[in-house]
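Deliverable D5.2: sample structural annotation.
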Amino acid sequence: MENLFKLIDDLISYEKNRGIIFTDDGFPTFTKEMFYTNPINKSFPYDHRNEASPNDSINFFSHDINMYRKLNIKKLEKVANNLTFYQAFIGFDLSIFIDISMHNQKFIILANLVIDIFFILHGNKMIPNLRYSTYDYFYLFNEAKIVCCGVVGNVYRKAIKASNKELITNYADSHKEQIILLYGFINIDKPNTIQIEKYKRKEKMKTYD
């Protein structure tokens, strides 16, 4: 964890030196030029990007262990450069657990966001990833035309599925100007929600750091 603190601190310094403004909460700010605005039909996990076309988007909906393996500057540089071959990326996806302290939730949110900004500064367009937390940060994405909710993990647990459905429905009602992509299956009957099929691996594929 100490290495992660240093990485995030280094990324914040890097981004401030390149003109990124941070809010009073300590989060990086996003401008509308940073966001992807065209329709998305498919999204592939980063570790299976070799199956995607240049017109597809890339996501980071994967086990946390795969995400944490990428957390050093050298590997993030490689990821950022690889993303430039695709239309857009969906925001980084370190898990935010609502049963941990608000302070720790805020740190994981910050980690995801500064990694997103790092990718953007390397020439990539972003689709914000709405990862739910009890700490409010969705206001940072008010300029985005398209956002995404990953609804893959725990989708078969009824209580969690019902909670996810309620949260997404409420968000859709209060952000009618945005298109909300749903990666995975959950039935949300709103005009501004679009279902994206979850990636299904047909055979064992090589993965990448």
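Annotation notes: Helices lie at 2-16, 64-68, 73-83, 102-121, 158-174. The chain is about 35% helix and 10% strand.
The annotation will be released with the project's public dataset once the embargo ends.
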